[in-house]
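To: structure subgroup
Subject: Chain for Friday's discussion

All,

I'm putting the inputs and outputs inline so they're searchable in the archive.
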Amino acid sequence: MTLRELRYLVALADREHFGRAAEDCCVSQPTLSTQIKKLEGYLGATLIERNARSFSLTPIGEDIVAKARRIVRQVDDLLSTARAAHGPLVGPLRLGVIPTLAPYFLPWLVPLVKGHYQRLQLVVHEDLTQHLVERLRNYEIDAPFP
């Protein structure tokens, strides 16, 4: 079992769609699906009931997702703590931006950030407001804009 597989499972549970979860994880849909099956094999439990056009989490799958979410959050917190030792505005800043604003805001923001904070890594998540709010609640982004 790997942290990556747990991240894939959490993304799938959050997005409720294999394709969108794969996109969020920057992998292909078959890769995400294969890794989820690998995780199920390792755990010896079916986490997802797959249908022709949809899926649902099994009861054990829901429990595993809740635990995986906590593990991922704790690892992210650990990484943030370690990076904070290097100084302020260092490491990744996960920013959520709505699609209607991104084309106007990002061309202005990215050069400004790179010019003033060379060690800050801006990671942009473009999505609908409702999804960004959910990602913020799940500690998947650090800040929404606006």
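Points worth raising on Friday:
Helices lie at 3-15, 18-24, 29-43, 59-84, 102-116, 129-137.
The longest strand covers residues 91-97.

D.
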